[in-house]
Amino acid sequence: MKVRIGAEASEAEASAIAAAMAEHVGGEVSVYVGDATDPAAVEDAPADGSEPDGDVSSPSEPTDALGPTEREELLREEIAEILAGGPEKYKEQLPEEDKLFVRDRIDLWFSGEGSDFLFEDGRFAEFDADDQLPADGLITGAATFEGRDVHFMANDYTVKRGSMAAKGVEKFLRMQQRALKTGQPVLYLMDSSGGRIDQQTGFFANREGIGKYYYNHSMLSGRVPQICVLYGPCIAGAAYTPVFADFTIMVEGMSAMAIASPRMVQMVTGEEISMQELGGAAVHARESGSADLVARDEEHARELVSDLITYLPDNADGTPPKTAGRPPARSPDGIDSVVPQEPNRGYDMVDLIHRVVDEGSYFELRPDYGKEIITAYARIDGRPVGIVANQPAHRAGAIFPDAAEKAAEFIWKSDAFNVPILYLCDTPGFMAGSQVEKDAILEKGKKFIYATSSATVPKQTVIVRKAYGAGIYAMGGPAYDPESVIGLPSGEIAIMGPEAAINAVYARKLSAIEDDDERAEMEAQLREEYREDIDIHRMASEVVIDEIVPPSELRTELANRFAFYEGMEKELPSKKHGTIL
Known about the structure:
This protein has about 575 residues and is α/β, with parallel strands linked by helices.
C-alpha cells in the first residue's frame, strides 16, 4: 500500500505512520513525503500476529449489548393475550366435551418428528374490538405435517363458539387463495357454529364474503388435497366445508354437521331431534356417506390423516409417494382357496386383498357406507394404488345406488391425484327392483361408469369370479381402456348368471317337460353348457381378456404391470368438461 504525506513531515514521522498503518491493514505500507519519488519509510505488518492498537472491533466480537425494548415487551404481552383465546369460562367447558383448546390442538398436529408449526397469519384480527375476539375466532397459517408443507385453518370454539365473521372470513379466503398459488395441501380443523348472525353485514353475501369459501373450495378441488376434520357441531355454512373437502374425518360423539341446528329444524318442521341424531358421525358414516372415516378421539383423528396423506401427492402435478415394498400380511398362495368354487357363495374380499397388498398398507374409506363395494388405498410393492372391489360378503356384491356413488367419487378423487386404480371384480351386476329405481340406481350407476371411463391413470382389472351385466362395465372391463384385464381361473363374464339366463331363454321349453326328473336333467345340462360359454378360458381364447394367471402369482403380476405402466399418459377428447356429475 502507498501513502503520500505532506512535505513538511520528518522522516521519523513518516516511519511512525508507515508502522501504524502496516499493523492496521496487515500488509506492507510505503510512505512518501511531498513529491518524492522514493518512499521515506517502508513498514510491514508484525510477524507475531498481534492485533493493531486503537478502537478497531473484531467482526466476531460484537460490541453492542442492545436488547428488546419496552415496546417489544408490550407486543409480546399482546400476543400472549391473543394466544390465550376467548373467555376462561368457555375454556373450562372444553374438557367436559373431551375437546382440546384450539392452540393445544395445533400443538398436537404440528409437533414431533416431521411436523412443525411455521407461522400464523392474521393473529391480530379484531384486536381493537370492544368484545373479546382473539384472532376473530379463526386461526390460519402454515405448518409441516409428517414432512409435508400444508396450509391450515382452525376454529377457536372459545370465541363465539367458533363462529365466522368478517375478519375471520378474510383470513380463511386468503389461506385458500395462497394454497392455489403454492399447490400445497389444505387442512381444515373445523369447530364452528356457522356465520355470526349478529355481524353478518360485510361478510355474508359479499364478493369476498363467506360464499367465496365454496367457490375457492371448487377451484382447489382436484388441484390439492383438501382434508377436513370435524371437532364439534358444524352448522349451516360451516357444514359445507367438510362436504366440499376431498376427505372428511368425524370424531365419534363429538362431531356433527347439518344444514340447520336441531332448534331450527324444530321451528321449520316441528321435528324434535338431537344434534347427534340429526347429523352425528354415525349418520354421515352410514347413511349419507359424507364422512370418510370416524375417529375415536382427537389423537386418532390425527393418526388417520397422517396415514391418508401417505397415499396422496401434494397436488395434481405430482405423483403419490412411494415406499419400500413389503410382503403381504397373508400368503398369496391362499388366494385360490379364498375364492369359493360355487359362484353364489359369499366370502370376504378383504381376505384376498390382504394377500395382494403390502402388509400394513390397507386403508379403507367409507367402510360403513355402500358396503357392497370396498374403496381403499393400499400399496403393491411400495406403489400406492386405489382399490375398487366388489364385496361378496355383503348382498352378494351386487351394486346398489350408494355403493355406485361411493365408487364413482373414490375413482374421481384417485384419478385427480394420480393414484393408479385396481378393480377386483366379483359382482352379479347392478341391483334390480322398485326400491333401487327410486334410489336412482341408473343415475348413480351412470356416475360409476362415467368415472371409470374418464380416469386417465393406469388401471388394472382382475376378474376374480363373477362379472355379470353392466357390473363389468363399471368395474373397468375390457371396453373401458384398462391397461390389462386379468382373469383368475374362477372367473366368468356374462350378461347374467346361468340360472337367470336359463330362465330367460328356456323357460317355455323347460315348462313343457312334464317329468320332473327329465326337466331337472335338462336344466342342469343347459346350465353347464352356458357356464362353458362364459368361462374365463373361453374369454381368454377369444382374447376378450389379456391373461389368466395362477392366483398365487396375482400379486407379482400386478406389481409388474403397475411398475411397467407407471407414468403412462392418456388423454381425454378435447372439450370443456363432461356433463355427468
